[in-house]
Amino acid sequence: MTKTRNNHCVPQWYQEGFFExxxxxxxxxxxxxxxxxxxxxxxxxxxxxFVSPTSRAFCQRDLxxxxxxxxxxDEIERKLFGDIDTRGAHAVRAFVGGDAGEWxxxxxxxxxxxxxxxxxxxxxxxWLSAQYPRLTQNDLMFEMQGIRMMHCTIxxxxxxxxxxxxxxxxxxxxxxxxxxxxxxxxxxxxxSGYRNEPSIALKGSQTIFPLNRDFCLILTNLxxxxxxxxxxxxxxxxxGNYRNSMVRTDAxxxxxxxxxxxxxxxxxVLKTRAKRYIAAGKEEWLHPETSSAEPWADLRSTFLxxxxxxxxxxxxxxxxxxxxxxxxxDAFGRTEKERDFxxxxxxxxxxxxxxxxxxxxxxxxxxxxxxxxxxxRPTWEERSIRExxxxxxxxxxxxxxxxxxxxxxxVRREITDEKIRDVYGLYDAxxxxxxxxxxxxxxxxxxxxxxxxxxxxxxxxxxxALGLSLYFDELLIExxxxxxxxxxxxxxxxxxxxxxxxxxxxxxxxxxxxMPLVEKGLVTLFPDPCNFDFHLRNQMFEMARVxxxxxxxxPKEEAGFTEMMKEEHKRAMLLLPRDALRxxxxxxxxxxxxxxxxxxxxxxxxxxxxxxxxxxxxxSLEGGKGGGQLTPFKMxxxxxxxxxxxxxxxxxxxxxxxxxxxxxxxxxxxxIQGASPxxxxxxxxxxAEFVLPYDVQQISVLAERGVFGDYxxxxxxxxxxxxxxxxxxxxxxxEASLNAEFKRVLASTLPIAKKSGxxxxxxxxxxxxxxxxxxxxxxxxxxxxxxxxxxxxxAPMALFVKGNAPQRGS
Length: 810
Fold this sequence. Notes:
Shape: globular
């Protein structure tokens, strides 16, 4: 079989729509013709103007080929694009016509084609490749398929207009990047316009796509169409990708007939955003800049949809189903009403340095966001993660009656199903399903930040994770509470709170344990990002399934895991009704009389009372609807989400899990090959003795006294060095300086910590900082799908903490 290696980035059937009537070729220009230096010093430029048929236009050798050794594979060109182009041709022709029934029939296909056409061009592939630290040609083709349909939801929810050039003397041109973005506030500077195409999610970004020589599609975000003064560089409301959304398939504005001057302006944008090639039915149409020299921002009037056509778009939508359920959607695709108590009004002018920062960190503006660019600040328009955790803590305290004079046994004894439902209901209210978590998380801003991944269990987390908060500016830990909105109603804590008595007790215990560190800003308890993005969750599950094939988990390798599971089993047995326990005792010890059996049962009651994580309500394991207990074990976040959060927030990864460490090491071996930087520093850290306080109150006191205060600074420097290593390799002088500073910090901190009287556990570190960082293409794809804009290309470093038995300081 003949291999197809001359790949068209613009399909031939599409090109034919720009021919002049009766012609089968058009004028074609190379905007960057090749140059050759001759032996005599002269430079010769290749021909730049052609009359070309479609077979020789907008094509490139092996643009979509994949390679396996010496074998070349062309299945992407033949099978993937063959199918998409066949369906796309029918869809484009349907929207050139005026049959609304055909629009409905081809609506989804049309936007699917539009999305792949934006990505498949040389310019689109360059953009995609730049989102990853390194991609081979085979990887690039795989990732291109992985992010398909990323733009469709935002496009569908926008204002859709098809303008006509039928009455104009000049017609639309076609470029090698026909799906073009215009934003009047993002001017393409001379020589850099190719790189500066703005995101479609920005309010002022409009998508331009000529359907043929006479018709052009213009897609405009609703907020900008309704209010031309909207900030064009802000993201549109609810700008998530891969969402289900309900839209009218017949809503298209088709009333505008452009003048020749307006067509010239459209062509100017198309040419400016092209990479190298443009074509048109007549050569004179290929030079719009000769007739349109006005500032870039002044072109905007040509692309604005008419106000009298906007009634087709926006508004609230309700749909009823036979089940009686009602689907709701607002103008931006949100299926929940906004919760006003979570909104904040940003200050009209910058706060003073001593004022509380608008990000909700609890710190002064001068020591928080003042020096950060706005793009690197968490949102100031919503309650922060910290503020929501404080609200949750206040709510839990009121619901459960946790006060200074109320002991934990009394609190546990008085827990009811209604209280459990109320707490989970509060959590659900504080974290709407359509929360933009990335806007609330910190960004890579130079802070010494760490993301913890490991067992989220009250009896284990204090051994390592909490003490680590003293070594960094901020420690991120996943929230212990299950989000009710992500659970099937059959197992929801709102519907069946009785099933969550044990899980609820563990979550409350862990949450209240960590809260003093949250309040001080040492720890950030963030919810699982998958709670707010089901596409992210589904992609993550599939990636984890593929990655973990053949991997085995040995619980015996995890420190404290076996003991923890034994305790969990004991608690489960103590949940049995008293009669069931009596039967169990008599079966195991038939020689006991009634009095002795009652004594044993009373001792079980005492065991439950003394165990702070034991449920004190009887009947928790009774059968029937809502019976039994859901007791999930959380080793969180998993590998993909750990990397996702670490790269999104600019964090070092820390773990005390042997299994997670193995996953990180495996990922590191897939990175750039070469010597790991800073070997002396790594050896020094791995040989050093670290101490971890494990009592929360003592951690708070040590933080206030600044005992470990020099560690965040050295961690910040190490992380920055590893993040910014140039392609030329390591810098020995910098590494020597970092090694010397680490030794000074260790020597000055360790004696003071041991003399502080705090209960400490000793720990050793293993360091992982491969050349190029820890990186996985699937994680970068997840970040790209989530519209993340300020994440790291890789996680520069990870630390494995292996602790010894806790000991009291001298």
